[in-house]
Each structure stands twice: as structure tokens, then as C-alpha cells.
């Protein structure tokens, strides 16, 4: 054990230490909070991506996601798909379509940039070239409209 | 994207939401206070000092972010005590009660309501008046 002079030194130091320990603890908690909030916010945005881009994310976006986030996205996708299948009878209900009530089944769209070939229901393909206009079923176009490839033309 | 993104909102009353980015920014705002005991090396830690390892003597004035004030504060006031920022004091409260529309709240501090609600965490005899005042100002 320490001699008495050393012991009183140690005791005097202790009240200082209380403050420093508490201060350091506050800083650690603060850093932890900031990190957790940042990571959680990323997840909220990644979840929104499923509704924005559909089940396949563009490479440019995946590039910025960590492996764990990609894993999370896949699990969310699966969860959502399971849920949608369980709703609305035999085939399930695709909730990511028609988020706003549609005015008609087919819509006139103009192509804003070259997107290549696009397959339509009866098997024929359409070439989506910049500025070309097409009359297509709404449900096929929604994702492309949200991504800015097609533009809904109001007649 | 904007349609499906729902960030965590700020907390209600005296509670913050841990994951709310708004609350995190709000709790970064600074509070005036004073040291209730000698605090070693605090000047360096708070970024207010020149960088030597001296301690700040008891009684000196401090400015610290809300999150630190909440962390170091206790009812016995052993480490720090917290003062009301000017904007919540008596004089300003009467201005708000006269007409809150007149005051440019943004100049006074960007998180007037949230921050004001947080102040109620530190026991202060003026708390009921502060709560009244920020409530009235927002109506």
C-alpha cells in the first residue's frame, strides 16, 4: 500500500479525475450518438431507394453503399416482397406502382435520353431514343419516369 | 426519393430523440455557465484556451455546447452550473409576450423552441416562466 503522503496526493488528484473521466465519457457518448444517427439516416435513405428505383439499384448508387447496407437492402426488399404477396389475393399487390392515383392506364411519354431497347407486353421491343415519343402502359413506365429517363407528356 | 424518405424528427418537450439529426444539431448550440470547481485542462478541451495544461479556476465563466452541459450537470452543482442565455431571460421574455412577431428569432439562435425546451432540464427557479414564454411565442 502507498505511504500516507502518496495517498493524500492520489486523493487530491481524484477530484480532478472525476471531471476528466466524466468529460471524456460525454465526448464518447456524443461521438457514438452522431455515428449512430448518421448510419441510421443512411438506412432510411436506402429504404426510400427501393420505392424510388425499384428492386435493382443503379451501379452508381450501389458503389456508395457498404456491403452491410447492400445486405440490409436485400433483406428489406425480401420483406417487402413477402408482404406484397400476402396482400391482394392470388398474385399479390405491387405497392410500389401507382403511388399516386392514376388518371388512365396508358400514358404518352417522351424519352429524355437514350435508354436503348425496351420490351413491351406483347413481346415487341421499342427503341427509347432521345426525344422519341411513345404510348405505353403506365405501370411499365413509372420507374423510368422517376429516374428521369422518360417524361410524362400531358396532352 | 423525397417521397419515401422519413427522417427521425426532433423530440417533444424536454426529451430529445437520440437519432434525430435536428436534435443533434440543436444540442450543439452553446450555453453560458460557470465552473463550480477547478477544472484541469478544460480550456484546451473546450477549444477556448491557448493550449497549456493549467486548470481553469473555480468560478470562471464557460461556454459549452448543450450536450456537454447536460452531461456534466447534476443537481448538486459539483462540476458546472448553467446560466440562462440572454434570449430566455426576463427582459427578452417580456419582449416576446408583447409581440413575438416582431422578433427575428433566427438571429437570436436557430433553435429557439427546441433549445428552450432543453433548458427546462436544468433546475432553475424561472423554469415555469420560461416554459410559458416559449409556448406563447410559438402560438
From TrEMBL, chain A:
Task: Name one process (GO BP) from the record.
Answer: DNA strand elongation involved in mitotic DNA replication
- What is its quaternary makeup? Component of the GINS complex.
The entry's localization annotation reads: Nucleus
Domain GINS subunit as annotated: residue spans: 16-87
The record's gene field reads Gins1
Q: Does the keyword S-adenosyl-L-methionine apply?
A: no
Q: Which Gene3D superfamilies does the UniProt entry name for this protein?
A: 1.20.58.1030
Q: Organism's domain of life? A: Eukaryota
CDD domains reported in the protein's UniProt record:
GINS_A_psf1, GINS_B_Psf1
Task: Family membership, please give it.
Answer: Belongs to the GINS1/PSF1 family.
Q: Please explain the role this protein plays, according to its UniProt record.
A: Required for correct functioning of the GINS complex, a complex that plays an essential role in the initiation of DNA replication, and progression of DNA replication forks. GINS complex seems to bind preferentially to single-stranded DNA.
Which GO CC annotations does the UniProt entry carry?
A: GINS complex
Q: Which organism is it from?
A: Oxylabes madagascariensis (white-throated Oxylabes)
Q: Indicate what this protein is called per its UniProt record.
A: DNA replication complex GINS protein PSF1
Q: Where is the DNA replication complex GINS protein PSF1 C-terminal domain?
A: 103-154
From TrEMBL, chain B:
Keywords, A to Z, come to:
DNA replication, Nucleus
The places in or outside the cell where this protein is found are: Nucleus
Q: What is its main location?
A: nucleus
Note the superkingdom of the native organism. Eukaryota
Question: What SUPFAM superfamilies does the annotation carry?
Answer: GINS helical bundle-like, PriA/YqbF domain
Q: Which residues form the DNA replication complex GINS protein PSF3 N-terminal domain?
A: 20-72
Q: Which GO terms describe its biological process?
A: mitotic DNA replication initiation
- GO cellular component annotations, sorted alphabetically? GINS complex
Which InterPro entries does UniProt cross-reference here?
Answer: GINS_bundle-like_dom_sf, GINS_Psf3, GINS_Psf3_sf, PSF3_N
Report the sequence similarity comment from the record.
Belongs to the GINS3/PSF3 family.
Designated name of the protein = DNA replication complex GINS protein PSF3
Annotated source species: Oxylabes madagascariensis
Amino acid at each position: 500500500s502507498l505511504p500516507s503522503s502518496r495517498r493524500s496526493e492520489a486523493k487530491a488528484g481524484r477530484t480532478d479525475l472525476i471531471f476528466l473521466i466524466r468529460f471524456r465519457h460525454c465526448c464518447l457518448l456524443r461521438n457514438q450518438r452522431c455515428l449512430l444517427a448518421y448510419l441510421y439516416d443512411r438506412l432510411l435513405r436506402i429504404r426510400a431507394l427501393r420505392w424510388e428505383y425499384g428492386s435493382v439499384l443503379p451501379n452508381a448508387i450501389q458503389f456508395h453503399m457498404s456491403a452491410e447496407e447492400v445486405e440490409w437492402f436485400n433483406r428489406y426488399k425480401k420483406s417487402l416482397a413477402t408482404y406484397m404477396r400476402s396482400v391482394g389475393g392470388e398474385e399479390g399487390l405491387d405497392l410500389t406502382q401507382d403511388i399516386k392515383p392514376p388518371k388512365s392506364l396508358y400514358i404518352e411519354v417522351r424519352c429524355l435520353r437514350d435508354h436503348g431497347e425496351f420490351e413491351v407486353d406483347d413481346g415487341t421491343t421499342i427503341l427509347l431514343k432521345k426525344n422519341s415519343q411513345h404510348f405505353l402502359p403506365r405501370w411499365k413506365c413509372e420507374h423510368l419516369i422517376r429516374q428521369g429517363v422518360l417524361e410524362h407528356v400531358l396532352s | 426519393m423525397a417521397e419515401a424518405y422519413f427522417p427521425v424528427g426532433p423530440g417533444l418537450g424536454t426529451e430529445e430523440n437520440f437519432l434525430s439529426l435536428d436534435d443533434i444539431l440543436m444540442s450543439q448550440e452553446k450555453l453560458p455557465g460557470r465552473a463550480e470547481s477547478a477544472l484541469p485542462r478544460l480550456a484546451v478541451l473546450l477549444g477556448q484556451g491557448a493550449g497549456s495544461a493549467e486548470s481553469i479556476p473555480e468560478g470562471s465563466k464557460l461556454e459549452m455546447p448543450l450536450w456537454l452541459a447536460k452531461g456534466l450537470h447534476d443537481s448538486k452543482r459539483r462540476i458546472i452550473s448553467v446560466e440562462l442565455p440572454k434570449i430566455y431571460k426576463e427582459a427578452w421574455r417580456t419582449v416576446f409576450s408583447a409581440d413575438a412577431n416582431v422578433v427575428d428569432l433566427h438571429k437570436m439562435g436557430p433553435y429557439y423552441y427546441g433549445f428552450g425546451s432543453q433548458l427546462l432540464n436544468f433546475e432553475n427557479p424561472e423554469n415555469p416562466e420560461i416554459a410559458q414564454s416559449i409556448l406563447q411565442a410559438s402560438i
